[in-house]
Design goal:
Shape: elongated
Radius of gyration: 30 Å
Protein name: DUF7041 domain-containing protein
Structural class: mainly alpha
Number of domains: 3
Distance between the termini: 117 Å
Oligomer: single chain
Mean pLDDT: 75
Low-confidence stretches: 6-21, 192-212
InterPro entries: DUF7041
Helix content: 55-70%
Strand content: under 5%
Pfam families: DUF7041 (PF23055)
Length: about 250
């Protein structure tokens, strides 16, 4: 054997020893059943940093990080893993087992209840986390918009961003509007129904006398539509006392 071959073998042996040493020092966090994809991103970063590339090494590290209930549910695969691609097979199995289904993701997105004490961009990040790798439908941006105070939605109505599919840019613009008018939105944020309030023209558009009348009628318990259109209203939003007051007046006659 030549001197050169000996050097190459020594280098390869040294690299293998370094890899084995790094593998021995890796301590992965316990598997995150409720966040499996971020967990894999986390551990794959550790594998990358420590130069761990062998399939079987990564596979056994993941197996060692599984909790008892996950191990029990994965036993069929663990007892008979494929000859090649053990790590990828286990990763795929765990993602399919614990990630939300499309129906569950849709349910979570449709069950959102406004901003709370978050900024629009923070809400968007939570929504994108729920979405995961799924392809968002055209409704995604509109679900986001429904969580915002009405004035923010109104300001974004003429923007091309909601249809651009650049969701983070949409959230940044919503932040800009929201933060520029923070005090104006305090009342809206405190109202649990702010995201479902009707988008209507300001009362000043009705004229001074009509605006005063509308305000008085709302104080009497009339909804927006009956306050604006009276008996000609084609819609009604509860709670609304318009019909009850009408019956009372009819009974008085």
């Amino acid at each position: 054997m030549s001197h050169h071959d000996g050097d190459e073998n020594a280098a390869a042996s040294g690299a293998a020893n370094v890899g084995a040493t790094c593998a021995a020092t890796v301590k992965l966090p316990d598997f995150w059943q409720h966040n499996p994809r971020p967990w894999f991103q986390h551990i794959e970063a550790q594998f990358q940093l420590r130069g761990i590339t062998q399939d079987v090494t990564k596979y056994f590290h993941v197996v060692a990080a599984l909790d008892a209930s996950t191990t029990a549910r994965a036993m069929a695969l663990l007892e008979a893993p494929p000859v090649d691609g053990k790590y990828d097979a286990l990763k795929t199995f765990l993602l399919q087992l614990f990630e939300l289904s499309e129906l569950e993701k849709a349910d979570r997105l449709l069950s959102l209840n406004g901003l709370g004490d978050s900024k629009p961009s923070e809400l968007m990040e939570r929504m994108l986390a729920v979405l995961g790798a799924a392809d968002p439908s055209f409704l995604f941006a509109h679900i986001f918009l429904r969580q915002l105070p009405v004035p923010v939605r109104t300001a974004l109505a003429s923007s091309p961003l909601p249809s651009s599919r650049d969701y983070r840019a949409l959230a940044v613009e919503a932040d800009r509007i929201f933060l520029a008018n923070r005090q104006q939105f305090v009342h809206a944020l405190l109202s649990p129904q702010h995201s479902f309030a009707p988008l209507g023209p300001p009362e000043d558009d009705l004229g001074t006398a009509a605006a005063v009348t509308a305000r008085r009628q709302r104080e009497d318990g009339w909804c927006y539509y009956h306050s604006r259109f009276g008996a000609k209203a084609k819609q009604c939003r509860q709670p609304c006392s318009f019909r009850a007051q009408g019956k009372a007046r009819a009974g008085a006659h």
